[in-house]
Amino acid sequence: MSGASDREAVFPTRQSLGLMKAKLKGAETGHSLLKRKSEALTKRFREITRRIDEAKRKMGRVMQIASLSLAEVTYAVGGNIGYQIQESAKAARFRVRTKQENVSGVLLPAFEAYQTEGNNDFAMTGLGKGGQQVQRCRETYARAVEALVELASLQTAFVILDEVIKVVNRRVNAIEHVIIPRTENTIKYINSELDELDREEFYRLKKVANKKLRDTAAADKEMKEKREARMAELAARGQENVEPEEYAEPRNILDAEVDEDVIF
Amino acid sequence: MTSQADYKDRQFLAVIGDEDSVTGLLLAGIGHVTAPPDSQKNFVVVDNKTDNATIEAAFDRFTTERKDIGIVLINQHVADKIRHRVDTYTAAFPAVLEIPSKDHPYDPDKDSVLRRVRRLFGE
């Protein structure tokens, strides 16, 4: 972490502090949600990989049986029917359609095999001999293809989930290691700046108070001197007058008290 | 990410393989030939004389050019010939599936997807 420099460019105000705090909270919520999503997906992913492993092995066996039945056909028909079949293939009887499954917001497509009725390109195959074997071979291969289709949808789900999990994990890590520390740094920075401003303000007020105290003291002294001078003058004139003294003193005390209230 | 429109109309299977595998799969009824002007077959027969460029072209045609193919079946020994292409193919659609053939038993260690599975779990 690069310390204080790794923060967002904001002014250290109370408003942006509030914004940052909201952002941090949002990031933490998002982090926990994404983490849970990633875990759900990973669970699913492991299940799919296990099923892929099984299905691949099963496929090996099914294909073996299927090629055996094809060998039977070749034997029964008494020649290679490959060329004839390749030429007579016109429209697919065996097709797939895709449907979707939703796993924590990720759309996983799944293939579903279906056979269209009514078109049979190979009606003439095995007409002479070996028709039964041909029929059986077709059924075996149809089953094999169904297994293959199932495997294909597992594999597609695997590829998509792999990609999605990578993206989600990247997001989780980005939030955990970049966004949250940076927001925390920003909050720390704003707090320290605000504290600094507080201290400055306090110091300034103290200065002002000191100055005022000094000023009042000076004014007091001046007033006192004036009064004494006046008293002396009055005394010199031989005339005793209490009025100005009483008029002057209460006002001074009030002033001083008012000032202290303002400061502290 | 794959958009929905990308796989809506993928309804055929394609096969690249030796004669027996192709014959068997065609018997199951996956063979399809598009309308006459540019009648394209969705199956390619590979024998000893087929060179790798032809296989590669067929693989490219099924995986990238044609938008109506959902699953590409390829014999494992054929996939071995264009192994680099199969291994670098990572798109979800169409799904590429390696299948065993009569003369070449299935070897899970060569399968591109199974290898990814093993790599992910560090086996």
UniProtKB/TrEMBL annotation, chain A:
Cellular compartments annotated: Vacuole membrane
Keyword Transport: yes
GO CC terms, sorted: vacuolar proton-transporting V-type ATPase complex
Membrane disposition: Peripheral membrane protein
Residue ranges, annotated region (Disordered): 224-251
One Gene Ontology biological process: vacuolar acidification
InterPro entries found in the cross-reference section: V_ATPase_D
Entry keyword Transferase: no
Signal sequence region: none
Keywords of the record: Hydrogen ion transport, Ion transport, Membrane, Transport, Vacuole
GO molecular function, one term: proton-transporting ATPase activity, rotational mechanism
Functional description taken from the UniProt entry: Subunit of the V1 complex of vacuolar(H+)-ATPase (V-ATPase), a multisubunit enzyme composed of a peripheral complex (V1) that hydrolyzes ATP and a membrane integral complex (V0) that translocates protons. V-ATPase is responsible for acidifying and maintaining the pH of intracellular compartments.
Protein family (similarity comment): Belongs to the V-ATPase D subunit family.
NCBIfam families (UniProt xref): V_ATPase_subD
Protein name: V-type proton ATPase subunit D
Organism expressing this protein natively: Bombardia bombarda
Origin organism lineage: Eukaryota, Fungi, Dikarya, Ascomycota, Pezizomycotina
From TrEMBL, chain B:
GO molecular function: proton-transporting ATPase activity, rotational mechanism
Cell location: Vacuole membrane
Keyword Transport: yes
UniProt KW keywords: Hydrogen ion transport, Ion transport, Membrane, Transport, Vacuole
Membrane topology, as annotated: Peripheral membrane protein
Highest rank taxon of the organism: Eukaryota
GO CC annotations on file: fungal-type vacuole membrane; proton-transporting V-type ATPase, V1 domain
Pfam families in alphabetical order: ATP-synt_F
InterPro entries linked: ATPase_V1-cplx_f_g_su (IPR008218), ATPase_V1-cplx_fsu_euk (IPR005772), ATPase_V1_fsu_sf (IPR036906)
Family that this chain belongs to: Belongs to the V-ATPase F subunit family.
Quaternary structure note: V-ATPase is a heteromultimeric enzyme made up of two complexes: the ATP-hydrolytic V1 complex and the proton translocation V0 complex.
Summary of the function given for this chain in its UniProt record: Subunit of the V1 complex of vacuolar(H+)-ATPase (V-ATPase), a multisubunit enzyme composed of a peripheral complex (V1) that hydrolyzes ATP and a membrane integral complex (V0) that translocates protons. V-ATPase is responsible for acidifying and maintaining the pH of intracellular compartments.
Name of the protein in question: V-type proton ATPase subunit F
Originating organism: Bombardia bombarda
Source organism phylogeny: Eukaryota, Fungi, Dikarya, Ascomycota, Pezizomycotina
